[in-house]
Specification:
By secondary structure, the protein is of the alpha+beta class. It has 27 helices and 16 strands. A hairpin with a 5-residue loop joins strand 10 and strand 11. Helix 4 (about 90-115) crosses helix 10 (about 260-290). The radius of gyration is 33 Å and the shape is elongated.
Length: about 750
Amino acid sequence: MTSKKTAQTKNFIHSLPQNIFSGFVVSLIALPLGLGLAIASDAPPISGIIAAVVGGIVVSILGGSNVTITGPGNGLVIVLLGAITTLADGDLYQGYLFTLAAIVFSGGLMLLLGFLKMGRLADFFPASAIEGMLSAIGLGILAKQFHIMIGHNNEHGSILSLLLQIPNGIMNLLSSDNTAEHVAGGIGVLSLLIMIYYSKIRNQYFQLIPAPMWILILTVGFSYILVPMNIPYPMEASFLVDIPKNVFSNLAFPDFSLVLEQEFLVVVFAITLISSIESLLSIKAVDKLDPENRRSNVNKDLKALGVATIASGLLGGLNVVTVIARSSVNVNNRASNRTSNLFHGLFLVLFVLLFQEQLRKIPLAALAAILVYTGYKLATPKNFRKIAKIGKEQIIIFLTTLITTLFTNLITGISAGILITILIHILINKSFGLFFSHLFKPNVLLFKEQIGGNYYVSVKYFCSFLNFYKLKFKLDMIPESEDVILDFSMCSFVDHTVMEGLENYADTFTGKGGSLEIIGLDKHEADSIHPFAIRKIIPFRTLKPIERYFTKRQNQLKATAKEYHWNYIPNKSSNTHFLDHFVFFKTRKINYLYNHLSDPNGIFNVFDVEFTEGEFIAKEVVKTTIVHVHLREPIPVFSLDREGLLHFVYHLAGFEDTAIENHPDFNKRFYLSGEDVPALERLFTDELILFFESNPYYHVESNGTTLLIQKKERLLSVQEIKAMIYFAQQLNQVLQPIEEIV
């Protein structure tokens, strides 16, 4: 134990310089963003820095994530701006003090959410609704900050009115004779161009300094260039950042006099909801970037963010959330633990203490340009096109959330997004009962299979954002180095949020040496070829071509057929009579087969089969994957399986267990049955018995002229299908000389 601790200490010390450097680089971005986000919220600029400093120190000590960075976030700008401007009827400073109180309360609620283990809160929101909400936030930031970027600091109104005023704002700037406005506009446009074209400059030394810091260096440097030339600075204080002369003696403290007012409580709820969603989504995204593939303790992180938010609010700072952009920079600079977040906060303290005079020379237009670019990235038209590719219904969800948010507020917007998603799901399935009669029923089964050692997860009824947490809970129980088969064959409906979330899980499992393969969606319909499109059951009567609806598994089957130079026919077929003579299907009714692979000679055929067993109330639909082999010469009829597995079925068919002389281990492990015992004894030579004993268990059955090979009463993954094909080919080779003798 001591050696392990010593190794951890050495690793910590060894990685410390890199984490200090990463924290420094992140602080270069956090400084202008912290100032800018505070100004965008109509809060004092220093409040954004306080949030970043407190978040960096507190969350690095108490948090449960590894390489995330915390501070003020984009998502809260609209909420905070609305709170500050309305809670005190237009008195911005008093509104700011009331908002600080709301921030403290929201921190308490986040702390409570952490203790209640509500880290899965973000799972209850449709993915397209969240995209719509983020786009609305982006437009809100862009609408306000664009006017400040062109030197107009006093524009007010709703998001839509501010957006509509942009053309007039540009025309007024061009026709204005105010030098300060022209200078501010020029700085704003230049700063925006730096943000846009920064990534296209490939010079390694230039790239050492982030784009936002280049903007500060150039704009602050501009003021110093004018001094030796005896040229007065062309912008008055109203166009520059306002930093108190003594930061620590000018801290603002919250005013709790509105705590019982409904308007105040709505603000608290809105801040808590948005900050929790933004943080949880960012934590999940950063976990995917972590080169060590570690998974964050989201509930512990929520507690830490709650404590940090309370402390920040009490000191006059904004909310503390986990931020994706700064966290990505942290990962890219090879940070390995939470100390980088700590040092990012400490460097910000140094900047404020040592460079207060320089901070006061930063033009508001420069910070506004950074935020305009940030807002555009959140609301870029690419997001709309991405949503449109997934499905028409996703556009409706996205636009409903976006438009409702723009005309009302974030809470109403996300609520509208959830409601329209539920209504669309009901209309698509033409069933209200599918969702609400099964919502609280257990619908996920997990167990580890004896054969192969895979983890098998089966999902029943439906899987949408409403109950995705149940599936995620099961998947989180599985070590990510293991192989998982996720079966949706008993599930009638899978929504976009689930499909997108499972892609993230698949990436995580692959990154840690395991795998997650989805099966059972091959007969579900989709409205687009996008891998995240909604999947719903196709009625059997709808025999339309399904090539455009291919699942990932079907694409892999198609690729496998090409690799083997085989044929692949995905369509359903009711031509299943050739299976009727096998004992396995004596008491089962075959509905159809599909996903048919066959070699050019027609010897080997692989297909998925759907059949029913039982009758009336006990009737159950089962899907399985089978290899069917045509034999060149007839052999005895037999069934071979693990001892005891289908003993009762074979006994009903009139078969008895056949013992092969001098092979006690084989007789103990396998149940061999057939009508012609002497022929079986001749067929099962030492070579054939050795083959079965040295290979994985398969159910093998002969009807005299063909073989049926099956592994499990479920659909197989593509890797399992390849293994079964190889088994069938090897078995056929062993049987070939025996066929000629028999």
